[in-house]
Automatic annotation (TrEMBL):
This is Cobyrinic acid a,c-diamide synthase. Residues 1-164 form the AAA domain. SUPFAM superfamilies: P-loop containing nucleoside triphosphate hydrolases. It holds the Pfam family AAA_31. PANTHER family: P-LOOP CONTAINING NUCLEOSIDE TRIPHOSPHATE HYDROLASE, PARA FAMILY PROTEIN CT_582. It comes from the Bacteria.
Length: 249
């Protein structure tokens, strides 16, 4: 079972849009896929028309295999299940920090579904917290969308520094440029600069700023399902193929 996290310490960069499309692409390729919506806002569940869970999540949730497995829902697509967000996920950090081996709770919990899924995609909330440390320990690949602006550069450097300081393997970080606007020279310059500064770290596929992606809020389906031939659809497909190749390697 491969665990792929869509993560950034910055908000609104395209994590959820990526998680939704990557999960769809893995499922469409025949892999049994679970998308875990770890953000209490519940956006990735919303895109798959799965309601957030109202049941209270408490400290035991991630320790109780059966409760974890029972919370999983089916989706409209073959091979794709969803673990919907729960409003009390916002208290995760408090629960986690009280537990023993608090950094590896999520990894342990996901072992409960090891034989049911080939791929688990995690849609993460934007911060560096106990939950994200759990994500970093559990994930085989941390896929990081980066909007090519100066501020994103700083945030990305902070993430790399965090990995170094915490002795986490940096080679798990796979970044890509998100919401790219070809018309903006700053975007082009930032892409060139960051690609050079971080050899091999950024995927060649970039995701353009595209209205099809914004429309996912209306269609409530991945772009890869509704508009696979669009520029955005082709870009997500290319990103999927690169990530698939990287996690296999
Ligand atoms: N490539 C894109 N082009 C245009 N709009 C996009 C693109 N990617 C995402 N969006 C839109 O930008 C908004 C933020 O995207 P998304 O929710 O995927 O980001 P996020 O990083 O998950 O945000 P959050 O930190 O709040 O979880 C959404 O309204 C989404 O539809
Ligand atoms: Mg999100």
């Amino acid at each position: 079972m491969q665990i792929i996290a869509c993560y950034s310490n910055k908000g609104g960069v395209g994590k959820t849009a990526t998680a939704v499309n990557l999960a769809y692409a893995f499922a469409a390729s025949g892999r049994r896929t679970l998308l875990c919506d770890l953000d209490p806002q519940g956006a990735s569940g919303f895109y798959f028309r799965v309601k957030p869970s109202k049941k209270l999540i408490d400290a035991q949730f991630f320790e109780d295999d059966q409760r974890f497995a029972k919370a999983i829902r089916g989706s409209d697509y073959d091979n794709l299940d969803i673990l919907p967000a729960n409003i009390s996920f916002r208290d995760f950090d408090v629960f986690l920090s009280r537990m023993k081996n608090s950094q590896s709770r999520l990894k342990k919990a996901l072992k409960a579904v090891k034989s049911d899924y080939d791929v688990v995609v995690l849609d993460c909330p934007p911060n560096i917290s106990m939950l994200s440390e759990n994500v970093f320990h559990a994930a085989d690949a941390v896929v990081v969308p980066v909007i090519p602006t100066t501020l994103s550069q700083r945030t990305f450097d902070q993430l790399l520094e965090f990995f170094q300081a915490s002795d986490l393997p940096e080679n798990r970080i796979h970044a890509f440029f998100s919401m790219v606007q070809g018309i903006k020279s700053l975007h082009g310059e930032t892409i060139a600069g960051m690609t050079e500064a971080h050899p091999g770290r950024f995927a060649q596929a970039t995701i353009p700023f595209a209205s099809e992606i914004e429309r996912m809020g209306l269609t409530r389906a991945p772009v890869l399902a509704t508009a696979p031939g669009s520029r955005a659809g082709k870009a997500y497909q290319a990103l999927f193929e690169e990530i698939e190749g990287r996690v296999k390697a």
